[in-house]
């Protein structure tokens, strides 16, 4: 099937973090004490009758900590049944979560994350407040006596046109005058502001976007063109805002002109980058092609409107792991052969180095992008259809060309990102054995940080457009991939 259509399989990812359609809910609160301060983001990642999953990220805004304890109370009788990345105890409604050995150090503006599953009956409200090491979280900092205050002051010294000085993004973007340009799906921009509203400056006739404020959905923008989209009516306080590109538009160039505050407000210093970075490389299955569709038949523009890369297995995995991420996926592309032999002379590797996919010769500068983990899932389009007359392969020579190109691509990633990056090569039928052979050759040559991961398709419904993964499938894959990642010797 094409990268936008597929009978392919996909890699596994981990449970969702910030929003899951129909179930996501997020609340941001924060901390306060002498030379102390913190912010906490609580997100319901999934919910079902009698049960739910949640993720918590705690950010230290005060002096560095060598250990932490986060406490809160549930208001409707919820009970924690399982937790990860923390040591968690509950007595009645009171819950206490403590750091584990590897995430106890919290420098100023550093963060740690953990998650849990729980039960509920009747209602499932978010906790009203949190406390870090006994100090109630408020989102501000209480300085030591005699010192000046405040974290989160407006960044008025930054030039208005310098978008990247005021927003955080991990995506492949290029500065262009007073905007940034980009093409890949799932690219996100994160900012902070004070006031009752925020404007999102866009110029994009080709793609759709989701807006989130304080971790909760605040609107979807379909083919915005040149506009400033406003979110108003907020409390006069500090807020976070996130803009994410939902779908693919490799033929066009998208532009983002930054966030602007409503009258009386101010744009604040941008959020800190996360210390973890993950890159996902793939085709339509990785892009989330038609994953929110209610059926497999998707005529007209239904694929575009129902693709949500922010709910793909890669995005869900990365957010559960509190990682910045890139989803560098193009529908219909293979390692050496595109779907049904289309667009001969090109393949996924033709476009991988670009930020702007439609600009031949464009080369993206990775800068500080050095992912500790890269996940590669390519091969569905190479092998999902038989070789057509006139194509330059036989069935056997296609396999040989695929293996040769795959080995060279892994070496390219190793050269770019260095020996400490772990590369996970995903396999599924009918090409999984070829991927496994390439990985075995590399590990046999001494590269211990390349791993093979066979995709388990048990229970997948493939109810997305053209037999692609549904959001339910993406969640299952994310859970399975997350379990596998937990076995890897990652130094993060």
What are the salient characteristics of this protein?
492 residues, alpha+beta, 8 helices, 26 strands
Explain what this protein looks like in three dimensions:
The strands form 5 sheets. Strands 1, 2, 3, 5, 8 and 11 form a 6-stranded antiparallel sheet that branches. With 492 residues, the protein is an alpha+beta fold. Helix content is 15%, strand content 32%. The protein has helices spanning 284-287, 302-306, 313-320, 348-351, 380-383, 395-417, 432-444, 471-485, and strands at residues 25-30, 36-48, 51-60, 69-73, 79-84, 87-91, 94-98, 111-119, 130-132, 135-136, 141-142, 174-176, 179-182, 188-195, 198-204, 209-213, 216-221, 225-231, 237-245, 254-261, 266-267, 276-282, 323-329, 373-377, 422-427, 450-454.
State the share of residues found in helices, binned by percent. 10-25%
Count all strands and give the number: 26
Strand content: 25-35%
Structural class: alpha+beta
Instruction: Please give the count of helices.
Output: 8
Instruction: Report how far the terminal alpha carbons are from each other.
Output: 36 Å
The description of the largest β-sheet is: 6 strands, antiparallel
């Amino acid at each position: 099937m094409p990268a936008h259509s597929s009978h392919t399989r996909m890699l596994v990812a981990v449970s969702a973090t910030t929003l899951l359609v129909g179930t996501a809910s997020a609340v941001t609160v924060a901390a306060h004490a002498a030379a102390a301060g913190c912010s906490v983001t609580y997100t319901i990642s999934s919910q079902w009758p009698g049960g739910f999953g949640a993720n918590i990220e705690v950010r230290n805004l005060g002096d560095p900590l060598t250990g932490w304890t986060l406490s809160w109370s549930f208001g409707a009788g919820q009970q924690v049944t399982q937790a990860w990345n923390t040591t968690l105890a509950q007595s009645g409604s009171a819950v206490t979560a403590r750091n584990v050995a590897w995430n106890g150090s919290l420098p100023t503006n550093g963060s740690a994350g953990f998650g849990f599953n729980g039960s509920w009956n009747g209602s499932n409200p978010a906790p009203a407040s949190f406390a870090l090491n006994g100090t109630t979280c408020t989102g501000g900092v209480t300085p030591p006596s005699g010192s000046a205050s405040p974290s989160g002051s407006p960044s008025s010294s930054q030039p208005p046109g310098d978008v990247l000085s005021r927003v955080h993004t991990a995506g492949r973007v290029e500065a262009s005058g007073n905007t940034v340009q980009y093409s890949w799906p799932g690219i996100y921009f994160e900012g902070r502001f004070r006031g009752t509203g925020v404007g999102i400056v866009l110029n994009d006739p080709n793609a759709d976007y989701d807006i989130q404020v304080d971790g909760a959905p605040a609107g979807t923008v379909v083919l915005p063109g040149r506009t400033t989209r406003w979110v108003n009516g907020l409390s006069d306080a500090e807020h976070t805002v996130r803009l994410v590109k939902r779908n693919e538009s490799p033929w066009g160039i998208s532009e983002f002109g930054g966030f602007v505050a409503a009258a009386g407000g101010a744009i604040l210093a941008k959020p800190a980058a996360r210390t973890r970075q993950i890159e996902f490389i793939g085709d339509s299955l990785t892009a989330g092609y038609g994953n929110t569709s209610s059926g497999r038949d998707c005529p007209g523009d239904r694929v575009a409107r129902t693709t949500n890369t922010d709910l793909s297995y890669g995005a869900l995995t990365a957010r559960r792991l509190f990682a910045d991420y890139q989803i560098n996926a193009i529908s219909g592309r293979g390692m050496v052969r595109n779907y049904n032999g289309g667009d001969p002379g090109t393949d996924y590797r033709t476009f991988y180095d670009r930020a702007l996919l439609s600009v031949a010769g464009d080369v993206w500068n990775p800068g500080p992008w050095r992912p500790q983990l890269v996940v590669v899932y390519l091969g569905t389009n190479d092998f999902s259809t038989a070789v057509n007359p006139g194509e330059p392969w036989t069935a056997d020579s296609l396999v040989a060309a695929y293996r040769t190109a795959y080995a060279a691509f892994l070496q390219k990633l190793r050269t770019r990102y260095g020996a400490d990056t772990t590369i996970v090569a995903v396999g599924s039928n009918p090409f999984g054995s070829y991927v496994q052979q390439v990985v075995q050759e590399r590990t046999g040559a001494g590269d211990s940080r390349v791993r093979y991961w066979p995709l388990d398709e048990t229970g997948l419904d493939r109810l997305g457009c053209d037999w692609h993964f549904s959001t339910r499938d993406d969640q299952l894959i994310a859970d399975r991939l997350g379990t596998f990642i937990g076995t890897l010797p990652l130094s993060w």
